[in-house]
Specification:
Structural class of chain B: alpha+beta
Low-confidence stretches of chain A: none
Strand content of chain A: 25-35%
CATH architecture of the largest domain in chain A: 3-Layer(aba) Sandwich
Number of strands of chain B: 16
Number of strands of chain A: 15
Distance between the termini of chain A: 35 Å
Radius of gyration of chain A: 18 Å
Strand order of the largest sheet of chain A: 10-9-8-7-11-12-15
Strand order of the largest sheet of chain B: 3-2-8-9-10-11-1-12
Helix content of chain B: 25-40%
Radius of gyration of chain B: 22 Å
Order of helices and strands of chain B: EHEEEEHEEEHHEHEEHEHHHHEEEEHHHH
CATH class of the largest domain in chain A: Alpha Beta
Number of domains of chain A: 2
CATH superfamily of the largest domain in chain A: Nucleotide-binding domain of ferredoxin-NADP reductase (FNR) module
Largest interface: A-B, 44 and 56 residues
Oligomer: heterodimer
Helix content of chain A: 10-25%
CATH topology of the largest domain in chain A: Rossmann fold
Order of helices and strands of chain A: EEEEEHEEHEHEEEHEEEEH
Chain lengths: 276, 378
């Protein structure tokens, strides 16, 4: 069955709350014989809530079992509200995978800098798992995550685990923080001064609010980090995921098809304009 | 070799199409305009009608010619037949354990024969083919309708006040995309064949071959229609408009046009190439099933650019800019063509008469008015 035009049935095999409004659903195809589904880190699925509709959600690999697909979701609208109420054993429709993922092949042999903000950390988890799985193919790994308030940080345990690994540096920033916050209080761009970047041998992958990504690019270019080595994941309204419904147009690109991951020079002009 | 189809034979054409299993649609006067509806008799055609079109205006008038296609166009192109205003995509059933079975829903109806499509409408269909058929992903519903459509084009012998297909090179004479193409002359039509299906159809009618004088009269009709056009798209609608638009995103004209634009979306509804749609859900009453459907959307709505709690295009200026830069500019990046086919519908059906050729002229600095040929020669 084609999983592009019509959804396929999946079952929730695990569910966890990451914060008061962010939760993770791990899905498994009910047709366990289904073997032709494969995704690249950075791609997304359309998840379908019965009787309500679909939403685009990035796929997190858990790094262990390729038959389980985790999706970390924020409760913001009708579909995601409904999804948040589902429990283990409930069913969800799935179409996918869609879009162009992270350029992990280009990162081989280089250091990797992952800069994320807010829930932007979710689409980047698959990068981290991929690198950890193929550790010898990559250089140092820098993981920078920024949140508005320190209490917004999710995946705390994973950050601690990654920070303990050799050749991995994790740096966290919160615009405002409560006591005992182990990270930096301030902007994520300030974290760039705390790490020892080799600007000529690093690939940067970024996902988060556009303001945060613009500021990060600006700081990186000040540090003479080449623009061509920056990739970012963009987001717009998406309803079809195949470049037909028109909602995710970003100039001449459909974010669902040509993106969501773009090389910075390709989207630079419009990223700095309002209304696209 | 072209044929001649006399007025008296028009009903034979309808009967032949019906005999082949087609539902026949043709132009007729309804609600003060010309629309495509079921055609069972040539009498239903808009005999003697002519449309006076201006920005924001459409008026049907009696013409002194007693011809059936002496008008330019109505609000519909072919689009509503292929990319339907509302259509089911798939349905889902939920069983007792809560598991889902999904099934694609394909249309089910008789094939359609459309009589009276214009050259610009065929150009619009070719653009939508690129969007919905020829890319990485095909659209199943569009493909189904496309495969069940026979097109009998009728070449224009008159251009409306908002027509500019000469400058967009999409008319007034149809060059491809039809099964048969008719040109109305005295007492009937010169018929050209565009496909095997069209060939079989015309063969079954036993028409005479057109005489040289009839062929010449038909050719003159297309020339006359072309010469009537007073409007043009700057830069002849070429790829050059893409860079002009994208390099002028801060042009003061955007603010100026936004003060006139009502952001109503009429332009996108009548446009033969606009393809935006949003998806809707229709659960069954018993709660065990649901139909997932789509309906036309417009980049002029707030919801079009909604994303988790915010609207990317929150002002009319941003929305008009998105529409025009896409239609005439970034469409080239996506589909290697302009999104405009010169039909002028968005100009006619705009309640405040915004003319995209005029807006483009203001930004490109090149006139949208055709220089009179005599004036140019002198």
């Amino acid at each position: 069955m084609n999983v592009i035009d019509t959804p396929i049935d999946t079952k929730i095999v695990a569910r966890s709350d990451e914060s008061s409004d962010i939760f993770t659903l791990t899905l498994q195809f009910t047709d366990t014989e289904k073997k032709d589904y494969a995704f690249q880190p950075g791609q997304f699925n359309m998840l379908y809530l019965f009787g309500v509709g679909e939403v685009p959600i990035s796929i997190l690999s858990n790094g262990v079992d390729n038959r389980l697909y985790a999706h970390t979701i924020r409760r913001v609208g009708r579909v995601t509200d409904g999804l948040s109420l589902l429990q283990v054993g409930d069913h969800v429709g799935l179409r996918g995978p869609f879009g162009r993922g992270w350029p992990l092949d280009l990162a081989q042999g280089k250091d990797v800098l992952v800069i994320t903000g807010g829930l932007g950390c979710a689409p980047s988890v698959s990068i981290i798992y991929h690198i950890l799985k193929h550790r010898a193919d990559f250089g140092r790994l820098f993981i920078l995550q920024g949140v508005k308030h320190s209490s917004d940080l999710i995946f705390k345990k994973q950050y601690e685990q990654w920070a303990a690994l050799p050749n991995v540096q994790v740096a966290l920033a919160a615009d405002s923080s409560q006591p005992n916050w182990p990270g930096h209080t301030g902007l994520i761009t300030e974290l760039l001064d705390q790490i020892n970047l080799d600007v000529n041998n690093t690939l940067c992958m970024m996902c988060g609010p556009e303001g945060m990504m613009r500021a990060s690019v600006q700081r990186l270019t000040q540090m003479h980090f080449p623009e061509e080595a920056i990739y970012l994941s963009l987001e717009r309204n998406m309803e079809c995921a195949v470049g037909h419904c028109g909602h995710c147009q970003f100039g001449g690109d459909f974010i669902c098809k040509e993106g969501p991951v773009f090389n910075y020079p390709q989207v630079k002009a419009l990223l700095n304009k309002k209304g696209f | 070799m072209p044929y001649f189809l006399a007025y008296e034979q028009f009903n034979d054409l309808i009967s032949a199409l019906n005999a082949l299993g087609y539902r026949c649609l043709g132009p007729q006067v309804q609600d003060g305009t010309i629309v495509f509806d079921d055609l069972t008799d040539a009498k239903q055609l808009p005999w003697g009608m002519r449309d006076a079109q201006k920005p924001g205006q459409y008026r049907l008038q009696k013409s002194e010619l007693n011809e059936s296609f002496a008008w330019a166009n109505g609000p519909q192109a072919i689009k509503p037949l292929l990319f339907k205003p509302k259509e089911s995509l798939w349905r889902v059933e939920r069983d007792e354990e809560g598991a889902f079975t999904f099934k694609e829903t394909l249309p089910e109806h008789k094939p359609i024969a459309l009589i009276g499509a214009r050259s610009c409408d065929l150009a619009g269909m070719a653009v939508q083919d690129k969007t919905l058929l020829k890319g990485q992903y095909g659209d199943q519903q569009y493909r189904w309708h496309r495969e069940h459509l026979l097109v009998i084009a009728v070449n224009c012998s008159y251009s409306g006040g908002n027509c500019f297909c000469v400058s967009t090179k999409t008319g007034p004479k149809a060059t491809s995309g039809y099964d048969l193409a008719l040109t109305e002359i005295q007492n009937g039509f010169v018929v050209e064949v565009g496909s095997d299906k069209g060939r079989d159809l015309i063969d079954s009618l036993h028409c005479n071959e057109a005489e040289a004088a009839e062929i010449a009269a038909a050719a003159q009709r297309s020339i006359d229609a072309a010469n009537m056009q007073t409007k043009r798209m700057p830069k002849d609608n070429s790829r050059a408009l893409r860079d002009i638009l994208m390099n002028n995103l801060d042009h003061p004209r955007w603010q100026e046009v936004a003060e006139r634009c009502l952001s109503c979306g009429n332009c996108t509804a009548v446009c033969p190439t606009c393809f935006c749609h949003h998806q809707t859900e229709h659960p069954t009453v018993d709660g065990n099933g649901s139909v997932h459907a789509r309906e036309w959307d417009s980049c002029f709505t707030q919801g079009h650019s909604y994303i988790h709690g915010q609207v990317v295009r929150d002002t009319t200026e941003k929305r008009y800019k998105q529409w025009l830069t896409h239609k005439l500019g970034t469409w080239w990046d996506q589909f290697d063509t302009s999104g405009c086919v010169g039909c002028g519908r968005c100009v006619t059906w705009c309640p405040v008469g915004i003319d995209l050729t005029e807006e483009m002229a203001a930004i490109a600095g090149e006139s949208n008015v055709v220089v009179d040929k005599k004036e140019k020669d002198s």
